[in-house]
Amino acid sequence: MNRFPKSKISASFAIIQKNHPLLISGQKTQLTQAFIHIIQNAIDSMESGGKLAVSIEKSARETLCIVIKDSGCGIDSKRIPHIGEPFYTTKERGVGLGLTICNKIINEHNGFFHVSSEENDGTSITITLPMKTPELYVVEV
Q1: How many CA atoms lie within 13 A of 135 on its CB side?
Q2: pTM score of the predicted model
Q3: Which of 108, 114, 15, 130 is nearest to 63 (CA)?
Q4: Reduced to 3 states, what is the DSSP secondary structure of residue 63?
Q5: Is 114 helix (H, G, I), strand (E, B) or coil?
Q6: Torsion sign over Cα 18, 52, 35, 112
Q7: In which region does residue 137 sit, left (phi positive, over 0), alpha (psi from -120 to 50) or beta (all else)?
Q8: Model confidence at 53, in pLDDT bands (50, 70, 90)?
Q9: C-alpha distances in Å from residue 20, one per residue of 15, 23, 59, 65
Q10: What distances in angstroms separate CA 1 from CA 4, 49, 104, one per listed residue?
């Protein structure tokens, strides 16, 4: 079922695991806010429709790797270093704080946020977060 407001967008989700739940430590509302914002940006980049793929995989170093990839308009390579800077936006009605906040949330959870993109060929956002540690609140992914 396609629940995206733009009906020409298809989505796929893949969770790649081997016999163990994929758990991360963190604040559920903050992480949810970050993921929703990144996915909404991906949807916004596909004005004429496209594909959105989300994959989640445990890496070899006890980290969880979440990749959100779209087939949207992509980002000019000159703009990529500025993504996440406060008040930097390419949107007509944007404020430029969305990805800044996402990056801050990911960093506060000891994670990393990486953007790779080519203009007219989509964007891939890779978020790497440490796996569950017992002393923190646990969010099941």
Answers
A1: 0
A2: 0.81
A3: 130
A4: strand
A5: strand
A6: positive
A7: beta
A8: very high
A9: 12, 9, 13, 15
A10: 9, 16, 32
